[in-house]
Write a structure and sequence with these properties.
There is one protein chain. This protein is an alpha/beta fold and 543 residues long. It folds into 3 domains: 124 residues, 3-Layer(aba) Sandwich (Aminopeptidase), CATH 3.40.630; 158 residues, Rossmann fold (3-Layer(aba) Sandwich), CATH 3.40.50; 233 residues, Triphosphoribosyl-dephospho-CoA protein (Orthogonal Bundle). Helix content is 53%, strand content 12%. Strands 1-2-3-4-5-7-6 form a 7-stranded mixed β-sheet, sandwiched between helices. It has a 5-stranded parallel β-sheet with strand order 10-9-8-11-12. Helix 7 crosses helix 8. The N terminus is likely disordered.
């Protein structure tokens, strides 16, 4: 006779273990489901260790709910989901969504969930009032006349996106644009929303939500997975739009761009035209796609990426390339005295993780620094960026020098300095403006670092950049920089005489030997690391 659930313990499977992850995957597969990204997966097992029931949670979404065939009369789902609700509450999450099969609707309604959207193979439910609040917000944004909607990811915003919005806006009195809110993409939600707002006129950009193309309504979109699961997610997402989003906005038409390249998006468009009463598909501009922009950024080509985007997107492309430059510097192994993927170098207060935290804290400031309208504004943004970095790293200075040199350079670029000579002159002019302000407030930066900037980083353009562009690679370029740069960080840690020796050693001593030596002596050529990142960045925007 089957034991009741009360005689079983609910336990968490450690999914980081390949054994337990495979066990969960087999169980889900036997029950017609597949493993998805989860924070926690909880199960009820019998005495022999066989999983009888399981359910997982990812952020505020309960998913992967399954019960073994022989245990489906035992009422195991309710205690599992109640356990996950309590677990979420302990983490400060009081409102949850869940995916489930249609036959489980009554079970979850008894646990306080209500229906959001339905598809033949699944339901989307929630136990809070999130959708109700979002629809109230949408109703507050209603406009008179004929209204249309575009749901847009814009990762990043391209000329194709702008064309779509211009064509759609011409066909309605008001065009609402809902940015996809899901994070974890190349460009953050705030960046994507800002790009949309800056690049198109005669539109109303709304706040995004979890109720359109999100991990809750359409998780397979972010996996680009064309499968039965994706079909279900598409239908759930569109059902929710038709039931709630469109009526809240009093929107008559949904606009969409044609998608000849991405099979999943094309399938989404096809089902949209099947399910929604009024869909207008606008042909896309040839060869322009966000994925092509991202590919250009991956290889460090601002020229290729910017050709596909309006100028209002350029600050965000520069931000991404600044992030790339810092990442390439950090990910270079074998750097004497510096933090990398293989060592903490000469540092006891920072490691690879600390550096990544600092980089993440700076990302929102790069576009703003690129667009700064004066030396004073750029200086203030630099101060704010430094505070954000220190907050993220627990007070550790990971990128103060990078904030200064990268901020100067991207601002010079946005001010029209698109050649090496113009960039030298523009950087020097901006740096002189900052120095004048700092002198007035008695806040002087390191003398050598400021001197390099006032000189327009002439040595970088004449020596380090051509050397890097020749294919020397990051480590060899770092050593070349170390051999020629008066590095404020080395001077501060080891003194002027030892700093001169470090310059000679960079040319003559095996870097592996230097790694051990500098770690022991506490020597960290942080200024050279900043200049390497700057060299990589300038290479990506000029060449």
């Amino acid at each position: 006779m089957m034991q009741s659930y009360r005689e079983h313990n609910i336990q968490e499977l450690p999914l980081s273990s390949p054994f337990f992850r495979q066990k969960a995957e087999r169980f889900l597969g036997e029950n017609g489901l597949r493993m998805e990204v989860l924070d926690v997966y909880c199960v009820i097992e019998n005495e022999s260790g066989k999983i009888l029931a399981g359910a997982g949670i990812r952020k505020d979404i309960i998913k992967c709910i399954a019960v073994a065939e022989e245990a489906r009369s035992e009422g195991l789902v309710a205690p599992l989901v109640s356990h996950l609700i309590s677990l979420a509450a302990s983490r400060g999450i009081s409102e949850l969504k869940l995916f489930t099969k249609p036959e489980n609707r009554a079970i979850f309604e008894s646990l306080g969930f209500h229906l959001l959207a339905s598809a033949p193979k699944a339901l989307l439910m929630e136990n809070g009032r999130g959708l109700e609040r979002y629809c109230a917000y949408l109703r507050s944004m209603r406009k008179e006349g004929r209204c249309g909607v575009v749901v847009m990811n814009a990762n990043p915003f391209t000329l194709g996106h702008r064309y779509l919005l211009e064509q759609a806006a011409a066909q309605v009195d008001t065009l609402f644009v809902i940015p996809v809110k899901e994070e974890g993409q190349r460009f953050s939600y705030e960046e994507r929303k800002a790009m949309i707002m800056a690049s198109a006129s005669k539109i109303v950009v709304l706040e995004g939500s979890d109720y359109q193309i999100s991990a809750a309504t359409f998780p397979t979109y972010f996996l680009k997975d064309l499968s039965d699961a994706a079909e279900t997610h598409i239908r759930l997402d569109l059902d929710l739009f038709q039931r709630y989003i469109a009526p809240a906005l009093n929107a008559e038409v949904r606009f969409v761009g044609s998608e000849p390249y991405d099979a999943l998006t094309n399938h989404y468009n096809t089902i949209m035209k099947e399910l929604l009463p009024n869909v207008v598909e606008i042909p896309r501009l040839d060869a322009i796609s966000a994925s092509a922009v991202r590919a250009a950024l991956d290889k460090g080509s601002f020229r290729e990426a910017s050709a596909l985007c309006p100028e209002t997107t350029w600050p965000y492309l520069l931000a991404d390339l600044a992030d790339r430059a810092l990442r390439l510097e950090l990910d270079t192994p074998g750097k004497p005295g510096l933090v990398g993927p293989d060592s903490c170098g000469a540092h006891k207060d920072m490691d690879y993780s600390t550096m990544r935290k600092g980089m993440a804290a700076l990302r929102p400031f790069w576009p703003r620094m690129a667009m700064a309208g004066s030396a004073e504004q750029l200086r203030q943004l630099g101060i704010e960026a430094e505070k954000a970095m220190l907050n993220a790293t627990g007070g550790v200075n990971t990128h103060r020098g990078a904030i200064f040199c990268l901020g100067l350079t991207m601002n010079a670029w946005m001010n029209g300095a698109h050649t090496e000579e113009l960039m030298c002159l523009s950087i020097a002019k901006i740096a002189q403006g900052i120095l004048a302000i700092n002198q007035a407030v008695r806040d002087l930066p390191p003398r050598a670092a400021m001197a390099n900037a006032i000189g327009g980083y002439r040595q970088l353009f004449e020596d380090w950049l051509p050397y890097y562009a020749s294919g020397a690679g990051e480590l060899k370029t770092l050593l070349r920089i170390m051999s020629t740069l008066d590095d404020t960080c080395v001077i501060k840690r080891a003194g002027a005489d030892r700093a001169q020796e470090v310059k000679q050693e960079a040319l003559t001593v095996n870097p592996m030997e230097l790694c051990g030596r500098y770690a022991a002596e506490g020597i960290s050529p942080g200024g050279a690391a900043d200049m390497l990142a700057l060299t990589i960045f300038i290479h990506s925007i000029i060449l």
